[in-house]
Amino acid sequence: MEKEYTFTLWDGKVIVKPRLDMKYLYIEITSRCNLKCEMCFKQYWEDTEGDMDYELFLKILDDAGEFPNLRMIYFGGIGEPAVHPRFMDMVREVKRRGFALGMSTNGTLLTDEMLREFAELGVDLVYFSMDTVPTAANAITLGHITSALTAEKIRKLVKYREEMGTHKPSIGVEVVVTKENYKDLPALARYLRDLNVDAMLVSNLIPMAEEQVKDIVYDGSVDMTPVVDKLQKIANSGLYIKIPKFELKTERQCDFDENNVAVVRWDGEVSPCYRFLHTYYEYIFGRKKKVNAYSFGNVREKSLAEIWTSEKYTWFRFTMKNYMYPSCTDCELRDACDFVKTSDIDCWGNEPSCADCLWARRLIFCPIPQYMFGKFF
């Protein structure tokens, strides 16, 4: 018999029937990284680092097989996947089982052999981090990633996929915008287009420390219109560019909710999105807030299907997809309200609280592959 949950909503009742409708499964195979990027969550969180046990990884893939509409396994989270000692074994196993595979990487640990095997295996999507055009005068990105090295990895991957004749993997580049690099975005877009990169994902900065608040460009301090106009023109010449909002808007739309995403942390905890994967402080337009990690269950103890269709996770997704939660970000009472101090609960009783989320405001983006390069994944 199918599960069915009845919830009270104001003066009525809502009946929700959970389905095995997950589309994208993000797996944080490690929370460790070989770099110490100044803007990264890792420099500010309170969590213990670790690598996912290989047996747990295999169990997650077994569980993933229960979801008939699953489009992709994605190695993501907050960490560098290639740090994991069994990284390539994990890549091979995902492809052996017939899943589409994507990943986010800084690229610095990827060897020629790895890149060639990506093309041979038909890895579907690889996103690299790069925040500036590599030049002699500026050879290091804002996140201390050597962009020249990253660009060389991209060139080689393009070469290997061309040799295979399949155009796999699709190649994207993630860019975090600050006051230091926003003027360089059009030049970076042209550079990536000439590298034969398929997509450029532009995201704003979430300050993790008070001194980073001055670096954001979505607080009205910068006119981003000329930059956006140039990016849109470049996008018409062959590079897919996903551009965020650069000012606070009323509309909310969460890519994680809309695309039925779950994220499994390295230790097996299941979160609804990147935001709740770890515990850290963030600054929302200069206002300090503590985001506490939140899990709907651990895949060591339950199947992914049990967690996904549980009463609490089902109600959370229903509530978030219908945007039945308050908006702390532009609430006139936010400076006197205790609910805005953490992400634990909002004034409507939702737990955890998405009421201050800048992802839902389209200011922050993560690679959600649904429609990224003129095609669906």
Can you describe this structure?
With 377 residues, the protein is α/β, with parallel strands linked by helices. It has 9 helices and 13 strands. It has a single domain (5-376), classed as Aldolase class I (TIM Barrel, Alpha-Beta Barrel). It has helices at 54-64, 87-96, 112-121, 147-164, 185-194, 225-235, 255-258, 304-308, 311-321; strands spanning 5-9, 12-16, 24-27, 72-75, 101-105, 125-129, 170-177, 199-204, 240-242, 261-264, 270-271, 280-284, 287-291. The strands form 3 sheets. Strands 9-8-7-6-5-4-3-10-11 form a 9-stranded mixed β-sheet. A two-stranded antiparallel ribbon has the order 1-2. Residues 19-235 form the Radical SAM core domain. GO terms for molecular function: 4 iron, 4 sulfur cluster binding; catalytic activity; metal ion binding. Keywords: 4Fe-4S, Iron, Iron-sulfur, Metal-binding, S-adenosyl-L-methionine.
